[in-house]
Each structure stands twice: as structure tokens, then as C-alpha cells.
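Priority: medium. Attachment 1 of 2:
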């Protein structure tokens, strides 16, 4: 269980820093109550984590070898892709992710203009975060982790990783983003994915 918790915490934390959902939370926190935005974002990320873990548990109904080597292939594939992406990046802040986050908020704003109370802000944060996270790399990571590791450990670790990133985002996401290297974070994520892929492969 400790291994599953550690894997979930590390992979999710590194994957989420500076991505689209990170900046959605940051931008919402600049417009609304940080506390309410944080609650909505963490609730959405926790719901997505639980859903992904359940999907991973359904996958365990497949042959064990197929599940295992699919997990290994996903980790190594993600790792190589992230290392390649890091090699192609400049050291500038991730402007593309910021623009995508702004577009997502601007597109939703007219539909949610009447939601100004506390619950409305939480719902807006929840909805935007949940939709941005659907189909994201971290969702597939959580599915793969839970298929081959202790589901409770993965769940708690992943939610903790999401909560750490959401806290950073609401407390000073833009400040942090200007001072972190997207290339370094991406390379670190790639290295972690490769490491867990190799460990998973060696475990059988």
C-alpha cells in the first residue's frame, strides 16, 4: 500500500504542476474566493481519481499478464514522450497551457454568470476542473496504477498529489509558474514514469 501511495503521490504531483487544470485553478482563484475554488477543484480531482481507480479495478478482470504489460507500456510510453517533449521545449513559462485555461474559463463564464454565491463558485471550479481532467494523462496514469497496485493506496496518494498542486495553484500559481521550468518539470515527470515502468517490469 505504501508503494502505491508513493507512486500516486509522486506521479500525480509532477504531472499536474503547470498543466491546464493547474492554471484553471490559478485563474479562478484570482477572480473568486481561494478557499471556495480550492474546495471545488479538489472535489473534482478527488471524484476523477475515484472514478479512474474504479476503471482500473474493472481492468483487473482482464488477464493479469495483459494488465501488467499494458501498465508497463503506458508508463514507459509516457516517460519517453515526456522526455522527448522536454527536449523540444524552451525554458519559457508554459503560455500554451495558460491560454487553454483562459479559453476554458471564458467559454464557461457566460453560462455560469448567474452563479455568484459560494456554492456557485464551488460548482464552477468543480465543473471546469473535472472536464479539463477528463482524458488527461493523469487519468490514464491513475487507471494504470490502480490496475496493478493497491487501489486504496493509489487513491489516497493521487488525491494528496492533486491537493498539493491545487493548494499551490490557489496560493500563487502564476508566481510559481514564472519561476519553474516547464522543461525541468516535464523531464522529471518523464524520468519518474520511466522509473516506475522499469520497476513494474522488474516486478514480474
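Attachment 2 of 2:
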Amino acid at each position: 500500500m505504501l508503494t502505491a501511495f508513493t507512486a500516486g503521490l509522486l506521479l500525480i504531483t509532477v504531472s499536474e504542476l503547470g498543466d491546464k487544470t493547474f492554471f484553471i485553478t490559478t485563474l479562478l482563484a484570482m477572480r473568486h474566493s481561494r478557499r471556495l475554488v480550492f474546495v471545488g477543484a479538489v472535489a473534482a480531482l478527488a471524484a476523477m481519481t475515484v472514478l479512474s481507480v474504479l476503471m482500473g479495478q474493472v481492468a483487473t478482470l482482464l488477464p493479469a499478464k495483459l494488465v501488467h504489460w499494458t501498465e508497463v507500456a503506458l508508463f514507459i510510453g509516457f516517460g519517453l514522450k515526456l522526455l522527448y517533449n522536454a527536449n523540444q521545449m524552451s525554458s519559457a513559462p508554459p503560455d500554451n497551457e495558460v491560454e487553454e485555461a483562459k479559453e476554458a474559463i471564458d467559454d464557461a463564464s457566460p453560462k455560469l454568470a448567474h452563479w455568484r454565491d459560494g456554492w456557485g463558485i464551488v460548482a464552477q471550479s468543480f465543473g471546469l476542473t473535472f472536464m479539463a481532467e477528463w482524458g488527461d494523462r493523469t487519468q490514464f496514469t491513475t487507471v494504470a496504477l490502480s490496475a496493478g497496485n493497491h487501489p486504496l493506496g493509489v487513491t489516497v496518494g493521487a488525491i494528496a498529489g492533486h491537493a498539493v498542486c491545487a493548494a499551490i495553484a490557489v496560493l500563487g500559481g502564476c508566481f510559481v509558474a514564472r519561476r519553474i521550468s516547464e522543461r525541468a518539470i516535464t523531464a522529471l515527470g518523464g524520468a519518474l514514469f520511466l522509473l516506475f515502468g522499469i520497476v513494474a517490469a522488474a516486478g514480474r
